[in-house]
Structures are given as structure tokens and as C-alpha cells.
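thought: fold this chain, then report.
action: predict
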Amino acid sequence: MAEAHQAVGFQFTVRPDGVDLKLSQEVIKNIYLSGVTAWKKKAIQFKNGVLTGVYPASPSSWLIVVIAMMSSLYTRIDPSLGMIDAIKENLPYKRCISLQTRAVLSAILFATGLWLFFIYLLRYTLKALLSYHGWIFESHGKMSASTKLWLSLVKMLSGRRPLLYSFQTALPRLPVPRVDDTIQRYLESVRPLLDSEQYNQMEMLASDFKETEAAQLQRYLILKSWWATNYVSDWWEEYIYLRSRSPIMVNSNFYIMDFLYVTPTHRQAARAGNVVHAMLQYRRKLERAEHAPLRALGTVPMCSTQMERMFNTTRIPGIETDIVQHLTDRKHLIVYHKGRFFKVWLYTGGRHLLPSELENQFQRILNDTSEPQPGEQRLAALTAGDRVPWARARIKYFSHGLNKVSLDAIESAAFFLTLDEEPQGYDPAKPDSLDVYAKSLLHGKCYDRWFDKSFTLISYPNGKMGINIEHSWADAPIIGHMWEYVLATDCFHLGYSEEGHCKGDVNRGLPSPTRLQWQISAECQDVIEMSYLSARRLADDVDFHGYLFSEFGKGLIKKCRTSPDAFIQLALQLAQFRDQGVFCLTYESSMTRMFRDGRTETVRSCTSEAVAFVRAMEDPGATVLSEPWKLSTSQTPQQQLNLVDINKFPKYVGAGGGFGPVADDGYGVSYIIVGENLITFHISSKFSSPDTDSGRFGQHIRKAMIDIQALFKPENEKRAVENGKYAHLENAKKHM
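observation:
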């Protein structure tokens, strides 16, 4: 057996004259390689830390400034205006140093100070430039001369080849808005939802707030904004996510799907091997800060702080509030299959396991026929149910012995992998295939995903993949960035053999994955069952509908000279009104990552203008003030368009992801604009609400999209005719 083969690598024998220690050459080699890799990693991290610390300058620029100052000593030109001489006269121990050496040291010190001054000058100039956000509010497809000049200046000061965290210190802080502006914007957002009497009462409440608590609260916010890098992000994380005591499954966690049309291999272990290896490559670049920072318009940098907690992160349950635990440099993975938990080492001899080695390890798990231990199969249901029972059970049953060791292994793992038993994916021949796939990723069986991990990777027996993501540590674009990289690396860099296996030789000498051991009492099993039943009721109530809108995409929308996102948001408002007959408070997520440590803000997209548009499209209907977010919307952006050429590989498009409904009687809608001709909608609601139906809402979206696009048809047809006339004219010229 592989375990026995590895065990004999290290032996010792106690004798009367001492201990006889024997190490095999393989063990010594692995220890050596692990040490070399660790030091190499530290050296790279140190080097990249220096590069980030002096950005937008470079260490070589310091040498240039020093050489310039040294040259001035020989040309007798003093660019320092006497400062070099002053430094020379005030050097400590100057009597022990020759005059020439003192002159050289003084020039180096002055050059270093000048270099640091210019670094901070560039950095604060860039921060001042990045505080301008007028470009966001310009008409779609147009850019003013001032914005073009601003973009040129930002590009000029951004340096070359920035690392992941190069822009962090140059990002502006999130400003505290004026109380008057906040109140005015709030009143504008609720005006479409209230009748005149209700709105007048709301104005009185807003005025009363302004005259009483507002001023004091504003002072507190301003004070916090002075010493915190972001005055709202820590509160957002704690109060929006960590303090919630309801299940995070469905209510908070979200999912992202695999390629929509393509399955690179139908071998489950092979696909998991490639994907896990690609994730390890991504993590290595993340630890070394070698990823390029994401930039809007290809120029405006965004905060990268959230990416730090992508791996080795777990949400730990508490009685009153949860905490996010992030560890570093953990080298194992936990795999769940048929009710058993396995620990898989991801490194050997100081390197990642190769895809073929990972495939072999996962295949060993798939071939394992052992039975789950008592209480083991549904153990993860604790992470799916209410938080307080899980927190109490963790303290009582998992704080000592085997249970603590095994739970520590899960919570310290790089991430969690489920080798699922039922195939999933989009099948055009099965109308509900996308719906079932979405529900599998969102909640599964309620006990086969560890919902507390930063993310759970899910592998299906037909080769499809997906991920379920815990929300508190980061927002969707963060994990989406990693997933785009992984899918592209899997298909276009790693690839598969003709038989569908991972490329490369199989190393069968690796130790087999080890089973986690549990001692789960009958009392603890009862708690697990209660959590499972609670989670099962929640999961069964989710009505999901995945809808592929292929009549047109952003290509045609852009020809209408409007923003694709604005177009879709108006379609959602029209669909909501047609579905419910009333307008409702609408949540649209927007990121604030152009500010330091920025996360998410709310766009209230049910505006007076949107209501006026819907009323112009439909007969007027009655409104009610609705406090919950009955319509919660979010776009899944494509961030790294350079990874896959969709024009060349049109089938390699992602299906996006989704989330559960925020309100019991509302809808959750996530959408992804894929290429030029496809928009995928992920629609969720609850079966228990008599007023909602995800499938019906999908049809309302389809009709709304087509109806709005029809408004632009006369203009499009006119432009097409003009283009046709121009083409005929060009052809006529060619034949003259």
C-alpha cells in the first residue's frame, strides 16, 4: 500500500546506546525541496513587496537618481542647493570617515530622500486624479475632452506592469456624503412607491431626523473616516452578513456555473484534477501578488483587498455574531464523497501536485467503498441551518478529541471539494436542466457542501463543475475573477488526453487520501438532523428558473446607444410591474472598489424616471410602500475578456451565477451579458409565496426586453438603410 511505502521512509529504533534514526533518500530529498521552495516563495514575496511599496516608481529609478547625484560631485554642479553639503557636515562619526566617503554618503542620502519625495508626490497626485468620478456619469458611448485628458494623466502616472496591490495606497478613501444629499436621495428613491399623503409624512420624518440625530451621527462618521481606511466596509461585513442568525445557505451564499455549452472532459476525477491544479496556480500568483489589478476602462484601478481571503478562509459560527477566520500557507484540501470526508495533500517535494496526480487521488476517493461513520453523512448540514445551534454544537461537540482535529482540518483547508453523485449541466433537450443545476449549486442536498468555507468546489460525474460561495469575505466579482482564470487555464493551457484524462504521467507512489475520523454522539446527531430539516425546508421552498435570452444581446443594445445594464434594469422594472401590478423597492448591487477597501453599495433602480417609463408602456397601476427588497438584482460581470476569444471560441462562454430571493414574496435576479448575442438570467423566488413564479417572471423579462428593443427599431432600420445606401455607393464607386 502507498501508506506503508511512505511510512518506511522514516524509521527510528531505541537501543541501549541511543536512538538509531534512518531517513530514506526520498524523504531527505522532499525535505530539501520543501525548504528550497519555502525560501524561494519568501524571496519572491519580499521582492514583490518592495516593488509594490515603491510603486509607481521602481528600484532601478533609485539607482538612476543616485547616479545623477554622484555625477554632480564631479561636475561641481549642486542640484541640492546646498543640502548635500549640510548632510555631509552633520553625518555622525564624520571624523572617522574620509571627506570623499562623506561626500558619497551625503549624495546617496539626498538622492534617496529626493526619490522618496517623488514617489509620494506621484502617489498623491494619482490619488487626487482617481478621486474624480465624473466619467461614470457621461452619456453611454461618449467621452468628453476633459475625461480623455484625465484618462491620459492616469495612464501616465500608473507606471508599467503593476502588481496586484500596487495601487492600494493611491486609491482614494470613500467620502462621507453630506446629510442633505443623503436625505434628498432617499426621498427621491421612495417617491415612486408612495402616494402624496405617505410621501408628505416621509418628508416630515426626514426633516425631523435632520434636525435631531443627523448632525451627531454625521460627526461620528467623519471621525471614523479619518482613522479607518474605509468607514463603512467593516460595518457592512458585520451587520449585513456576520450578525445574521438565519441560515447562510440560500439566504447569503451564491453560486457560479461552469461553461454553458462545453464540457472539456466527461471524466469526473480528471476535470476536478485540472480545475484544482489551476486553482493552486491562481493561489500561488495571489500569494505573490503577481495578478494584474483589475482596472475599469483598462485604466482606473480597483481595490484588491478582498482577494486576500479567497483561500484558507472559513466563517466560524458564534452565538451573537460569526467571525471570518483566514489562515495562510495551508497545503491540504478536504473532499466530500458519499457521506465521507477525506484529506488530500496538495503538495509533494515542495511543488503542487500535477493534474494527473490530483486525478489519481480523486479517483481513489471515488473508488473507496467504505461507509460513513455514525453522524458523518449529514454533518455539513450544521453549516446549512440556523447559526446559533451550529455555534453551540461546535463548542459542545467539536472542541476536543477527534472531532476537533477533523473540524480543524476542514476549517484550515485551502477550500472544500464535493465529488457529487448526480450529473448536472445545461441540456437544451431538458427545459428545466438549468433550474436543477442552479438549485444543486445553491443548496445541493443541504449536507454535501460546507457552506462556511470561502467556497465549495462542486464536481459532477459528467465532468461539469461549479462553485458555491460564502458571501461575507468578498463579493461576486472577486471569486468570478478566479473562476474565469481557472476555466481558461483548464481548457486552453492544461487540456486533456484523447481519452479525457489529465495530461502527464501518473505518480502512484503518493500517499492515499486519509479519512477524517469522527466520534459523533447520538445527542449531536439529533442537532445535525434538526439543522438538516430546517435547511431542507428552506431549500425545497426555492423556485429557480434559468433563462437564456438569445433574441439579441449587448451588440444590438449598444446600437440603440444605451447602456446594456440600464436596458436590462428597465426591462426588469417592466417585468416586475407586469408580474405584480405594483412597483417595489428594488436593489441593484454596485461595487465601490474604486475606493480603498470598498465593497458594495445599493443602487435603488426603481426611480421616478423608471416608473414613468413603465407607465408609458403600460396602463397605470396602484403603488404601495414596500420595505423589503422585493426585487433584488445583480449583474455578473465578465472581467478578463482577454482569457478566451469568444469570437474564435463561441461555445466557451460561462453561464454566470445566481442567489436566493431576499424577500419571501419577492424575486432575486442575477444576469450575465455573454458576448454580443446572449444574456443569461438566473431568477429565484419561493414556492410558499402565492404571488411569485420564477418561470412566469422569466417570460415577463423576455417580453419586456423585446418590447423595449422594439422602441428603437425605427431608428435602427433608418441607420441600416443609410448604411445600405453607403455600401451601394461604395460598390458603385468601385465599378466606375
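thought: worth noting. The chain is about 45% helix and 15% strand.
final: C-alpha cells above.
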